[in-house]
Specification:
The complex is a heterotrimer of chains A (246), B (117) and C (138). Chain A has 246 residues and is an alpha+beta fold. Chain A folds into two domains: 101 residues, Beta-grasp domain (Ubiquitin-like (UB roll)); 135 residues, Alpha-helical ferredoxin (Fumarate Reductase Iron-sulfur Protein, Chain B, domain 2), CATH 1.10.1060. Chain A is 34% helix and 13% strand. In chain A, strand 3 and strand 4 form a beta hairpin. In chain A, helix 6 crosses helix 9. By secondary structure, chain B is mainly α. Chain B is 79% helix and 0% strand. Chain C is mainly α and 138 residues long. Chain C has a domain of 63 residues: Up-down Bundle (3 helical TM bundles of succinate and fumarate reductases). In chain C, 70% of the residues lie in helices and 3% in strands. Chain C has four helices and two strands. A two-stranded antiparallel sheet of chain C has the order 1-2. In chain C, a hairpin with a 2-residue loop joins strand 1 and strand 2. In chain C, helix 1 packs antiparallel against helix 2 and helix 3 packs antiparallel against helix 4. The relative contact order of chain C is 0.06. The mean pLDDT of chain C is 87. The chains are: A alpha+beta (246), B mainly alpha (117), C mainly alpha (138).
């Protein structure tokens, strides 16, 4: 067992090299340390040039997603002792371009997210005097699971379809679109349908199911996508057979 | 205006095909593929089987089974070649070949079942 | 934030690792996925087999007997045994997936996924028993 563990950390220094390399660091391994603690130890005491993202260190901000021993993980939620005696391979999140070391560019996700209008869309606004939009606990349950998404993008790293075809809109975006579609206060389902029913929208998904497996917040994006496929297909049938007033 | 493309319909056919093939094909393989040929059970004689297939309900079930199973295959086959083996440049050809084969098979099934009824 | 990614001193080259054609061998879950998709080949094979059977019946008793004889050949039996395994795999994985697409409400409550799953297996058992009885008992 021992109280130290080796981290094999991917490095990418674009000003010096054109490929990724690996640096090895030996870090302490107390029982309560997570991979992020190991990386912070490296940065504080061993190699200050290591570049990586982190913030809340408690699994809610979604910043610290990386590939640990081949699996997409939140480094703040993955214990080092799980990998004893090591070594632990830490690489940037898969399927995203690497800017430096462990930092990836998430611009693609951000652009796609905006396209599905992840906010309450109203066709008719209620005046302030009419009071709040009311919602029963059952109505909240309908979408609550999908609202847990922290935009950590582990699902994109796990999705082989996204890896092979970066135009695929991706699991988290569809789950978040569903979060609003299923919210009884929202009236924007039709607007989102246009984006999602494109070829690289929901129809790019072949239900591999890895996204749901790696999601740290149990959002179940695969379930969201399949539900949406069914409702989009039913909608499509309705609009074909009943063009008006469906 | 939602762009009309056939994906939703093809997915519905794939799903329906998945369900009927899952429900009916295993027992049929067990009987006509393994048990009867190996002599573990006696196959139905010709008269019985013809009478069974002449029934319009059986005919309908058999047609749905054959047609939907072929469309299930076509959709999955096309997607696996596209995603799994990355044969993207032949996408249209593969789509035409697979769905075309499904249509051909369904037509054949309809013809044969019609002849048997 | 443009898409062109012009490479300048202030925008160094990003690393874009290439996804291998053999991506599906990298994780057991990916391999299971490809096998699941591959089961569709056996769905197609057995549907063709059924079409051949239907054609034989349509051609008459002699053709039917000939079909039964052909189906007893070792290669055909082997293919069908493998098909049986893959079709069971197809059924199990499909039934695992189907409840995730369907959210059934009874009044205010949602039917739990395992109820839907049980319903699928019950229907599978019932259909199998009916077919079995029709083809062997009647």
């Amino acid at each position: 067992m021992g109280d130290r563990i080796t981290l094999q950390v991917a490095r990418y220094r674009p000003e010096q090299e054109s490929e990724a390399t690996y640096d090895e660091f030996e870090v302490p391994c107390p029982k309560d340390w997570v991979v992020l603690d190991g990386l912070n130890h490296v940065k504080d005491r061993l190699d200050g040039t290591l570049a990586y993202r982190w913030s809340c260190r408690m699994g809610i901000c979604g910043s610290c997603g990386m590939t640990v021993n081949g699996e997409p993980k939140l480094t703040c939620a993955t214990f080092l002792s799980e990998y004893a005696p090591g070594p632990v391979r830490v690489e940037p999140l898969r399927n995203f371009p690497v800017i430096r070391d462990l930092i990836v560019d998430i611009g693609d996700f951000m652009r796609k997210l905006v396209r599905v209008k992840p906010w309450i869309v109203r066709q008719v606004e209620k005046p302030l005097s009419a009071g709040e939009y009311l919602q029963t606990p059952d109505e909240l349950e309908e979408y609550k699971q999908f609202s847990m998404c922290i935009n950590c993008m582990l699902c994109y790293a796990a999705c082989p379809i996204y890896g092979l075809d970066p135009k695929f809109i991706g699991p988290a975006v569809i789950a978040l679109a569903q979060r609003y579609n299923l919210d009884n206060r929202d009236q924007g389902a039709a607007a989102r349908m246009e984006v999602l029913s494109e070829h690289e929208g929901i129809w790019g998904c072949t239900f591999v199911g890895e996204c749901t497996k790696v999601c740290p917040k149990h959002v179940d994006p695969a379930g969201a996508i399949q539900r949406y496929k069914l409702s989009a297909a039913v909608d499509s049938m309705k609009s074909f057979f009943l063009p008006r007033g469906a | 205006m939602i762009k009309r493309h056939p994906e939703p319909v093809l997915w519905m056919l794939f799903s329906a095909g998945g369900v009927v093939s899952a429900m009916l094909l295993p027992v049929l393989v067990l009987l006509f593929g393994v048990a009867f040929p190996l002599g573990l059970l006696d196959p139905p004689d010709y008269a019985q089987l013809s009478a069974l297939l002449a029934n319009p309900l059986t005919g309908l079930v058999m047609f749905s089974l054959c047609a939907l199973s072929l469309f299930h295959w076509a959709h999955r086959f096309r997607h696996t070649l596209y995603d799994g083996l990355q044969i993207k440049h032949l996408n249209e050809v593969i789509a035409i070949v697979s769905y075309g084969a499904a249509v051909a098979g369904s037509t054949l099934a309809a013809y044969l079942l019609w002849q048997l009824s | 934030m443009d898409q062109n990614h012009a490479y300048t001193a202030y925008h160094p080259r990003w690393l874009r690792p290439h996804v291998s054609t053999y991506w599906w061998l990298e994780k057991p879950a990916y391999l299971a996925f490809i096998l699941r998709e591959g089961s569709c080949m056996f769905v197609a094979w057995f549907t063709v087999y059924l079409l051949l059977l239907l054609r034989a019946i349509q051609q008459g008793q002699a053709a039917y007997e000939a079909f039964l004889a052909w189906s007893a050949g070792p290669v055909v039996v082997l293919v069908n045994i493998v098909s049986f395994a893959f079709l069971i795999f197809h059924a199990i994985t499909f039934f695992q997936a189907a409840p995730q697409a369907m959210v059934v409400h009874v009044g205010h409550r949602r039917l739990p996924a395992r109820v839907l799953l049980a319903a699928h297996y019950a229907a599978w058992a019932a259909a199998s028993i009916v077919v079995f009885w029709l083809l062997t008992g009647a």
